[in-house]
From TrEMBL:
Listed Pfam families: Glyco_hydro_28 (PF00295)
Keyword field: Carbohydrate metabolism, Cell wall biogenesis/degradation, Disulfide bond, Glycoprotein, Glycosidase, Hydrolase, Polysaccharide degradation, Secreted, Signal
Record's function text: Specific in hydrolyzing the terminal glycosidic bond of polygalacturonic acid and oligogalacturonates.
Domain of life: Eukaryota
Organism: Neolentinus lepideus HHB14362 ss-1
Signal peptide region: 1-23
GO annotation, cellular component aspect: extracellular region
GO biological process, one term: polysaccharide catabolic process
Compartments where located: Secreted
Enzyme Commission code: 3.2.1.67
Sequence similarity: Belongs to the glycosyl hydrolase 28 family.
Main location: secreted
Name of the protein this chain belongs to: galacturonan 1,4-alpha-galacturonidase
Amino acid sequence: MELKVGVLTILATILSLLARVHSKLCALEPLGSGQDDTDQVEAAIAECGQYGELVFGPGDYNITRKMSWNLVASRVDLYGYLNFVPDIQYWLNPDNTYRVVFIQNQASWFVVTGHDFTIDAHGVGGIQGNGQTWWTYYANRTREDGDGRPIAFTLSHVSRGLVKDFRIEAQPFWCNTVADSEDVVYDGMYCNATNTDPAYFGQNVVPNTDGIDTFRSDRVALTNWDITCGDDCLAIKGNTTNLYVANYVCRGGNGIAFGSLGQYVNLPDIVDHVEMQNLTLLRLPSNIQPNMVSGVYLKSWTATVHGVPPTGGGGGGGYVSNVVAKDVYVDQVTVPLHLYQTNGGNSGDTPSYLQFSNLTFVNWSGTSLRSKVVDIECSANAPCPNIQFFNFNVAAPNRTAPDYECVNVVSESGLPGPCNVTG
Ligand SMILES: *[C@@H]1O[C@H](CO)[C@@H](O)[C@H](O)[C@H]1NC(C)=O
Ligand SMILES: *[C@@H]1O[C@H](CO)[C@@H](O)[C@H](O)[C@H]1NC(C)=O
Ligand SMILES: *[C@@H]1O[C@H](CO)[C@@H](O)[C@H](O)[C@H]1NC(C)=O
Ligand SMILES: *[C@@H]1O[C@H](CO)[C@@H](O)[C@H](O)[C@H]1NC(C)=O
Ligand SMILES: *[C@@H]1O[C@H](CO)[C@@H](O)[C@H](O)[C@H]1NC(C)=O
Ligand SMILES: *[C@@H]1O[C@H](CO)[C@@H](O)[C@H](O)[C@H]1NC(C)=O
Ligand SMILES: *[C@@H]1O[C@H](CO)[C@@H](O)[C@H](O)[C@H]1NC(C)=O
Ligand SMILES: *[C@@H]1O[C@H](CO)[C@@H](O)[C@H](O)[C@H]1NC(C)=O
């Protein structure tokens, strides 16, 4: 639990610093009657966002253009919602969003930067993403990475930040991202991308509504998360180190992802020291969200380059190591534990050089939709050493015996049965 101790130290630092500041107080109320609140929110942040305190009273604050907060030694109490008005054509104009998330050239409509701050939404406020308008608009249109759909909440270049008890309703695209940051704690996060348009019942019209993507960040903690989405409920991307995850619930979607890694040929992706515990992955009714694909899955591109990011790529190196996932419960997931290194590739590609090693899976329970409950297919060019299991008991369907598959695994221990080379 050394990561956990580190996280508590960060929290103590932020809180003791905040106790000494707050010379200024800005209190806001929504303007109401359909008015635009962006000006008053920006003015309050300019006035109190550094060495001050802001209190947003309950209600909706309409935000009609991109907004960034630079918070320094400050505190924000958000008892209402920042309501991002869903003018799709406006937001799709690249000039109208920030492009601070380098990977895949993603767009952000709201970016927080700075250091030594707390944003506390007390479980009653946060962001209204108005996603249904977006999901319906995109249901019959092409969706791809970097297409301009905005990330709901972006933390970029943050050090020592705490986000607490924050709610994001109906994220149009990724719910959160943390990039180029260190010592960030998110304690209490709710995201919910649930289609309610009957025209699309039974389909996943909420792809790319990831709970969070972490990128180029060190010492991040995600505790007490509840994510409903149609994609990765957590995506650990390149240069995420010392990530601590606890009490994380994923409802529907693809599961908890490492990757995709190795998309950028000139940028090695390093993921080192990830500790996750108490993960719950729950399948939703299939008319609401048909997918609950994996518990935890790890993936890289091949070593062959196919086009360029954001949609193409491959050929990137790096490694993933020192990962622990313990106390994991999976409810009718398709493939509970999956590792593959062929994302975006073709047969005949050069196998990836990005290596996965030192992966430990402790105390897994629940049910799988298929008999193959573990499917670890490492690259021939980077076989995986030191894959360990303790108390891994995920049941296969209909009381059949579970299958375990290991390909290019150097050493494995602890599964209840043999991990066959081909399953
Ligand atoms: C504020 O939001 C409400 C609800 O989404 C909307 O009806 C209204 O038009 C918005 N006002 C502005 C100025 O965008
Ligand atoms: C979009 O697709 C859905 C189902 O796939 C269909 O019911 C709907 O009519 C389509 N909408 C448009 C505008 O084409
Ligand atoms: C997510 O939103 C849907 C639709 O509003 C709702 O039915 C569901 O209960 C919500 N999920 C959670 C976990 O709150
Ligand atoms: C595990 O996570 C769930 C959901 O977040 C929470 O209710 C429960 O208290 C956690 N268990 C422990 C032992 O922390
Ligand atoms: C990750 O860090 C390594 C070592 O500092 C660096 O060479 C690499 O470019 C970084 N990759 C990304 C995706 O930033
Ligand atoms: C194993 O995991 C289950 C479900 O996630 C949890 O309830 C239980 O406390 C864990 N047991 C141990 C010994 O950690
Ligand atoms: C994997 O674990 C071993 C044993 O603890 C350690 O020596 C090695 O450095 C680790 N590999 C990486 C890439 O961190
Ligand atoms: C399990 O049994 C159900 C009901 O008989 C059947 O529909 C399903 O295909 C079976 N699953 C497997 C993997 O055999």
